[in-house]
Amino acid sequence: MSPEAPLLEVNGLSSGYGRLPVLREVSLTARAGEIVALVGGNGAGKSTLLKTLSGLLPMTAGSIVWEGVEIGGRKPGAIVDLGLLHVAEGRRLFRGQSVENNLDLGVYGSRLSRDAERRRLDEVLGMFPMLAERRGVLAGALSGGQQQMLAIAQALMRTPRLLMLDEPSLGLAPIVVDQVFELLLRLRDQGCAVLLVEQLVERALEVAEHAVILQNGRVVASGKAADLRGGAELARAYLTG
Among 89, 113, 128, 186, which residue's beta carbon has the most beta carbons within 10 A? Predict the structure, then answer.
């Protein structure tokens, strides 16, 4: 695989909830070391797209290709094993478990040796000093910002090649939002691909190389993020849903 080839290629993807269609013929690509912003109004299908790519929702048409291999229809665990990690909206942690236990659970079911798990734990805690200082604290006792960092850190325990983030800044103080975006840039610089769903559209488009605008479950525009900022397609997507 050449460095320029996409890690992920989505072509004509459709999915939904039971008989309720949401996504309609969505196509996009993501490459290593690239942030792709998924933007659009409420109900546009952004979260549904991430859930479908994660295997949490079945696709009804189209294809999901990872490094040239079709992975549509695979179980969520198999998709995680490929290196596609999804941090869902709402900081879904084991709140009655410690920070360290939550991180350990991030590699549950992996084939890492115990020594490799401990090395990865040290690496991830090195990226999050605030968590390292609270490794014995229950996740439910952390602040909202700390919980969001823990949710991301838990995914990073698997050393993802593509990280899918759904509204990482939701409900966070501005200083913590800055920390989240700084982390995304570091991950990008390390070669990780990122699919970013974010309510702070301008911030998302500032850090992203590419953007995909969704409206009513369809892609209405895609291209370089800088070119789409302030464009008519973006305005229409938020004015009309």
Answer: 128
> What span, in angstroms and rounded, lies between the C-alpha atoms of 192 and 145?
22
How far the first Cα of the chain sits from its last, in Å, is: 38
What are the structural domain ranges in the chain? 1-83+161-241, 95-159
Region of residue 94 (phi > 0: left; psi between -120 and 50: alpha; otherwise: beta): beta
Q: What's the whole-model pTM score?
A: 0.91
Question: Which CATH code fits 1-83+161-241?
Answer: 3.40.50.300
Three state DSSP letters for the chain: CCCCCCCEEEEEEEEEECCEEEEEEEEEEECCCCEEEEECCCCCCHHHHHHHHCCCCCEEEEEEEECCEECCCCCHHHHHHHCEEEECCCCCCCCCCEHHHHHHHCCCCCCCCHHHHHHHHHHHHHHCHHHHCCCCCEHHHCCHHHHHHHHHHHHHCCCCCEEEEECCCCCCCHHHHHHHHHHHHHHHHCCCEEEEECCCHHHHHHHCCEEEEEECCEEEEEEEHHHHCCCHHHHHHHHHC
Non-local CB neighbours of 237 within 8 Å, separated by 6+ positions: 39, 40, 41, 44, 213, 214, 215, 220
